[in-house]
Every structure is written in C-alpha cells, then in structure tokens.
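The methods section describes the discrete structure representation at length, but only in general terms. Since the whole study asks how a given chain folds, the encoding of that fold should be made plain. An entry of this sort, consisting of the sequence and the corresponding backbone structure tokens, reads as follows:

. . .
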Amino acid sequence: MTLTQLRYLVAIADCGLNITAAADRVHATQPGLSKQLKQLEEELGFLLFSRRGRALGSVTPEGAQVLERARTIVAEADNIRAFSANQRRELE
C-alpha cells in the first residue's frame, strides 16, 4: 500500500466514483489509476468499490472504512508537506 494509492482512492471517492475525473484531479492517467486501485484491492484482499460492468457502482462497507482512514493519512501527509515548506521558508 502506498500513499499514492491512498490519494487515488480519496480522489475516486471525491469525484463521484468517476475514475477519469479522479485521474485528471491527481494528474494521472485513467489506466494508471485503475491499475493502482486494482493493486490496492488485491493487497487488501477485498473490493473497495462495487462494480457495474466496467464502472464503479458504490463504495463497499469495507471500502468506506478504508476510505475514512485514507483521508486521515492523506491529510496528515499534506500537513507534513506544509510544515516542511514553512520550515524551509524560515531557514531562508
């Protein structure tokens, strides 16, 4: 599991389960984002989203719990980046 995969998961949820829109949001390709989602689901051992054909249908109950934790992790990573940027500015 990587921070990038968690960012992609959050982006998919925030974009209404539209993988193309999520890929645009995170500056990735749709196939790359789909591949990362599949790898994350394989690592976890369960689906994060139900499927309707090739489209995502809804967040699974397990996916909702992972998504909640992923949002926290992504937010904390963003906080670390902001802290780091502030520290660099203070050192200049």
The first strand starts at residue 49 and ends at 52. The radius of gyration is 15 Å. Strands lie at 49-52, 55-59.
